[in-house]
Structure formats: structure tokens, C-alpha cells
Amino acid sequence: MKLVVVTNASSIENEHEIIERMFRHGLKYLHVRKPKYSKKKMTKYLEKFSKDNRDKIIIHSHHGLALSLGLKGIHLTEKARDESFNVWKKFYLYRIIKPKLQITTSYHKLSDLKKNTHKFDYVFFSPVFDSISKEDHEPSYTLANIYDALNYNDLKVIALGGVTADKISICYETRFSGVALSGYLWESGDPVEQFDKAKLICSQYKMQS
């Protein structure tokens, strides 16, 4: 299964050192979600990573940096996804400039999974379980509902929200193509240890089609 790490929204002590260790331990997909970062602050944040590791980073804001800094891809928030045709034109232009640029997004309703019309490399679906880091952020549907929706199309869907190492097998059985870890890592005493535990479990499952 695909294993994705999403940064904490605010800065974490020794954050770059922790993430660099995850990269060394096999992290291939890092989503940088820093909604309050200015473009200047985001640039400084990203430039601390080596060029090789930048190619494993997908950003949720200041998308133009994906080209100038050689990042793996861009993530469209729900708001960005629903904006005008000109916004979409810009992202398709990005892909012409960088054909291997990955574009991902987030869905929060089962109906979104059924009516998808855009080509994304993968999408987050959340919340799947009760959130670890957000109060009163819990799913309004059952795992059986999600299973039925995931059987509807061939989207690669990543489980997000309340995912821990011991829930990865449940995500696989529900037909998710992977899991995204956030609060499970950043609320723990040792994020790298938790990442290693999850990576070992994910390696036991083939990615869902």
C-alpha cells in the first residue's frame, strides 16, 4: 500500500530533521500542508531539503514552487479544485512543463468519489476514523459505505483521518490504495518510530487497483 505522510499544519520542533530521517527510512510521499505559511516562508521551508528529497514532496499551497524547486507535485484543496477554468488551465500547463508532475486532491463525501471527472494521481478521502488531532472531526459514514463507493471506480484513494498503524489492515480490506499519516505521527513521542511501524505493515499489502 502507498504510505503518505502529511506535515503538521504548524511548525514542529526539529521538523526537518525528523522528516529527513523518514526520507532515509523510505518515505516517498510527503504532503506539505502549511496553510498559514507565506510564499517566502514556504520557500525557505522547502529549500532546507536536498534536491533529491524535494522530488518526494507535494505542496498544498503556493503551487508555483513545485516547478521552481523541482517538487513531486501539487495538491488541490476543495476550494482550489472548485475554482474557475483558468485555474485548471494553469495546472494542465504545469503538467506540460513537467509531465511527471503529480496532481492530487481531497474528497470528504462519498458522492465525490462516484462523480469524479478529473484525472488525479490519487485522492485523499477523509475522515475515515475519528481524528487524532481535530476535535469533533469524525466520519458520517460506515466502512461498508466507503467499500461500496471505492468499488464504483478505479480511483486510487488514500485513507486520511484517524489512521494509525493498527488500522492499516482495515483500510486495505476497505479497498483503499494507501494510507496517510498525520496526527498519529506528530502527536507521538517518536514520529520516526511510528512511521517505521506503519511502513512495515504497508509493505505486507499489495496496492489496491
Summarize the structure.
With 209 residues, the chain is of the alpha/beta class.
Number of E-type strands: 8
Radius of gyration: 16 Å
Q: Which percent range describes the beta-strand content? A: 15-25%
Q: Write down the secondary-structure element order.
A: EHEHHEHEHHEHEHEHEHH
How would you sum up the major sheet? 8 strands, parallel, barrel
- The assigned structural class equals alpha/beta
| Global shape | globular
The rounded distance between the terminal residues' Cα atoms is: 10 Å
Helical amount among residues, as a percent range? 25-40%
- Strand order of the main beta sheet, please? 1-2-3-4-5-6-7-8
Count of separate DSSP helical elements: 11
Q: Which spans of ≥5 residues are poorly predicted at pLDDT below 50? A: none
The whole-number mean of residue pLDDT values reads 89
Topology:
Elements: E1 2-6, H1 15-24, E2 30-32, H2 39-47, H3 51-54, E3 57-59, H4 65-68, E4 73-76, H5 78-81, H6 85-97, E5 102-107, H7 110-114, E6 122-125, H8 143-150, E7 157-159, H9 168-173, E8 178-181, H10 183-186, H11 191-202
Parallel strand pairs: 1-2, 1-8, 2-3, 3-4, 4-5, 5-6, 6-7, 7-8
Helix pairs in contact: 1-11
